[in-house]
Each structure stands twice: as C-alpha cells, then as structure tokens.
Amino acid sequence: MPRWSKTNKLFEEHLAASLSGRFKMRATGYRQSHDRDGRVWFEFDGREVADFSVEGFYAEVDRQVGIRDPDLSDWRMSRSDPQLRPRFFQMRDELTEKLRLDGVVVLADFVQDLTLYFQMNHAEILSSPSAVIRALGMLDRRLGKRSLRALTIGPEDPSPLVRRFLAIRYEAEGLRLNRDAPSFT
Known about the structure:
By secondary structure, the protein is mainly alpha-helical. 52% of the residues lie in helices and 11% in strands.
C-alpha cells in the first residue's frame, strides 16, 4: 500500500463527482500505543458514517455477544470465568465472520480490501463477497446515475455498510429514495 496521502488521493479520484469535497476518508495512527494500531473513518458532510479500527470492531463483537447471551455481557467476567470462557470465545469467533460480511472489519482487513478495490473493475466490485469493497463501489465514479437507479441493492443486501453508502450516494446525487432503498441515518 502506498503512503497515506497517495492512497487518499487515489480514493478521491475514484469518488463520484457529486461526493467530491463532501465525502472524506480520514486516518490516524496511535504511535504511543503498544500495538501501534490506528483507525480509518469516513465522513459525509462532516458526520462520521463508518469506522474501521480494532477497538471499534471488538467493541461491536462484545456488544453482540452480550445481546446473544446475556450471561456473557460482562466481557471481563466472561473471559476470566473458566466455565464461561469457552462459550465466549466460540461465540466471538462466530460473530467475527458475520460482522465481516456486514462490513464491520478491523483496520488491517479494511486496508487489504481498499487495496483490492483499487485493482478491480466495477463489475468485480459490485459482485465482490467483501461488503467493504461493495460499499466503496456505491461511491465510485464508474457507477453512473442510470446504473445507480438500476441497482437492486436494498433491504435484501445483508450489509448495513453497503446500504448506508448507497443511501449517501443517492442523497449526493439528489435522487429520491424509493421505499426499498435505505435511508441515510
């Protein structure tokens, strides 16, 4: 992956004209942290609309584990209790794959998907198994208004990230969302 400024410039070159100046990809690194992880996030009109970080990913995993099994809602106890620990880690592993399909990924997976996105044609992007790549495809300049209207992505797409980015693109293009299209919230 090239330097961040070059990557960001390449991303902006792929954005639809209607999103230029309105949709931003931001990044930060935490050099003082023990694992040197950072985060990448997207903003639309100054509002954060997506986040890719290790902390955010595991916070979502822990939240969903607690929803599925209230006994495991206190992650500190779940990880330290010898009876709950195996159940907690099994459920966390199951959720990790589900979240990846939803477009909730750690920073390293996002960077990998972004690199692949830059190398794909638009047909490959829209049919990718990666929700991150499909979501980025909703913002791509190669997806024109006619093609955008013809997309059958809506509530049936399993990824909230894809639906959110599609709604952002609709708003930026000034298109009316039909009842099947997602709203931008």
